Amino acid sequence: MTSDDQDAAAAARVIAGDPGAFGDIVQRWQHRLVNLAWRFCRHQATAEDMAQEAFLKAYRSLGSFRGESQFSTWLTAVALNTYRSRLHQDRQPWLGRKPVEPVDTAPSLQNALEQGQRAELVRRAVLTLPARYRDAILMYYFEDLDIAESARVLGIAEGTLKAQLHRARELLRSRCERLGLRLSDLQTETP
Amino acid sequence: MMPDELDEILRSDKTIEPSPGFVSAVMRATYRESTELPPLRFPCPDSASA
Fold it and tell me: Which of the ends of chain B has fewer CB neighbours closer than 10 A, N or C?
């Protein structure tokens, strides 16, 4: 049984009156929804709260899932809409929190910490982009979704997404430079 | 700022693990929701023709 079949079976049981079957869906998709929320807020407790809200919205609207798209695409779109609304309401207060200051360590470790912090600043700069560019970047780079699936989740044409990604990268580069961040100085973090 | 470097930074973002109690918390909220929600309403002939 594929993941989509399992989701469809669980959804059918929920609609038939067994709310406990929703636990299968939460178990299977918790990692994706919490991590997508994390990219929108960079704060674990807030991300889990946002993901819980997204699951509850999905629970309420399970009856509207018609199977025209994959369940994962539908669920991710529900989550994306939830997170957009949440950011609009909360105005991202958690983004004012500074990344952890580096401690006094050996030069090589200090350098790695500084580079990690600067990469984090770039990722936070994504959250200051206009919503359509922010969403394009967050979806496209999330779990390596391809253009087609990212566009389906966003509800836009693939060509529109490509154009938005191009503009988003330009804006992001410009904002990073205004912050004094030259990407040529940055090394990516070791995963 | 090189495009490849930007791609690498955005692609290499860390992932977080949901807290151990996350699924339970969501299911508690789901059960609460399921007892609070009114039963599903179906269209009735009167309202459909109104």
Answer: C
Contacts of B26 in chain A (CB under 8 A): 26, 30, 51-52, 55-56
Measured N-to-C along each axis, helices A158-178 and A107-126 cross at an angle, to the nearest 10 degrees, of 130
ipTM over 0.85: no
Residues of chain A with C-beta less than 8 angstroms from the C-beta of B34: 19, 59
- Would you call B32 an interface residue with chain A, using a CB distance cutoff of 8 Å? no
- Residue A87 and residue B48: Cα distance in Å, rounded? 38
Q: Whole-angstrom Cα distance, residue A58 to residue A65? A: 9
Claim: this prediction has a pTM higher than 0.95: no
Q: What is the DSSP string of B3-23?
A: HHHHHHHHHT----PPPTTHH
pLDDT in tens, A157-183: 999 999 999 999 999 988 888 877 766
Q: What is the DSSP string of A73-119?
A: HHHHHHHHHHHHHHHHHH--GGGGSPPPPPPS--HHHHHHHHHHHHH
